[in-house]
Amino acid sequence: MKKMILNQLAARTILYTIVAVMCLASVVHSAYEENGVIQIKAATPPHVITHRLSKDAYQLFGNEVEKRTHGKVKFTWFFGDSLIKPSQSYEALRTGVVDLVIVAAYLFPDDFTITEGLSLPFTMHNSAHAADVAWKMYKAIPEMQQEMKGFKFLGIFTSDVLNLHSTDGRLFRTLDEMKNIRAAVGSGSVAQMGKLFGMEPQLVGYPEVYMALQRDLASAAFFPNAPLRSFRVTELTNAHTIANFKVDPMIIAMRQETWNALPPEVQRVFDELTPSFARLCGHTLTNEGAWVLEELKKRGDLFYTPPVEEVAKWKQAIKPMYDVWINRLDVKGLNGKAIFEKMIEMSEQTKVIDTPEDAWWSQGRIGKKSKN
Question: Using CA atoms, how far apart are residues 364 and 47, in angstroms rounded to an integer?
């Protein structure tokens, strides 16, 4: 009798184990094939559905993959935090919640330390420029390639350039005028920059900047040009100090298990669109940012661009950020100074005019203003 009971328990244990494994597989292996079509679950936690990237880059990319695979692949997009938050973007990739995700790399500086270099103030001109520099860095710096291990790397792009926008008509002409100003910021590196300027940065995350301004928790914000409109920050701000302070990097990543399961001909399509997809994102943001600022000028908002002499003082103020980043690389056993100099050299040598728009982009707006 005892042996019979033990056999029954063992059978039940095996059965429960099989069920548990099947359930886990259904959660982890989020890509699946239905009626011969590979379903890709893709999330863009940094960007809401009204963001121009959603239609002009993400959906356009998905449509292009579907077209080039002759309908073999289909995307389901989850925009903004409809599925995961930016702070969950890397973990969601590793745990299999998504197949493809825009990783908010600026929130994971310990995992993407070299990549974080793109966010150092006054090193990138705009997001189109940064996307080209990022690709050159990735190809030339083996240690940066190592940061992308564990998933299929599909490219790097950045936010549009951040500028300083205020709600009270205030423009910031000098460092003295920035002192003690409460500024809403979206990432830790932006907060560091604000502190070095003598400000009181309020780290709330990009999705919460609007609320921080609305509730008077801050009277200014460091915010990218392009999403000022889609995140409704334009409803609250009326003065803009344009110095193209910095960008924040993002990584286009596919779960390794998803990649391994794709047929070779489908993998080739994704490879063909790397780094073109990331460059599309960069150009989309740069184009949108340009017309958003132009519309604000027409509205009557105040604008100020500091002279080169003043910007030099601002660069000197944030120099400790360069030193800290270089030291962090040194601690990891890398040559931080050499990597920094290589990045600066690539930035100075890269001209966006030398890398024109790719042909397949023309199916969309590429961030340019239109009524659609």
Answer: 18
205 has a pLDDT exceeding 90: yes
Bridge partners of 166? 220, 239
pLDDT tens across 115-135, in order? Answer: 999 999 999 999 999 999 999
pLDDT recorded at residue 32: 65
Query: Does the pLDDT of residue 25 top 90, yes or no?
Result: no
Euclidean distance between the first and the last CA atom of the chain, given in angstroms as a whole number: 75
Q: What confidence score (pLDDT) does residue 365 get?
A: 95
Q: How confident is the model at residue 370 (pLDDT cuts 50, 70, 90)?
A: confident
- Nearest-CA neighbor of 195 among 88, 347, 339, 320? 320
Q: What angle do CA 97, 100, 103 make, to 5 degrees?
A: 90
Let me know: does 210 contact 236? Beta carbons within 8 Å: yes
Residue 371: the pLDDT is 54
Structural domains in the chain?
Answer: 29-158+249-286 (3.40.190.170), 162-247+296-363 (3.40.190.170)
- List Cα–Cα distances, 90 to 178, 234, 253, in angstroms: 34, 30, 9
Rounded average pLDDT over 262-279: 98
Q: What are phi and psi of 217, to 5 degrees?
A: -75, -15
The per-residue pLDDT for range 34-52, each reduced to its tens digit, is 778 999 999 999 999 999 9
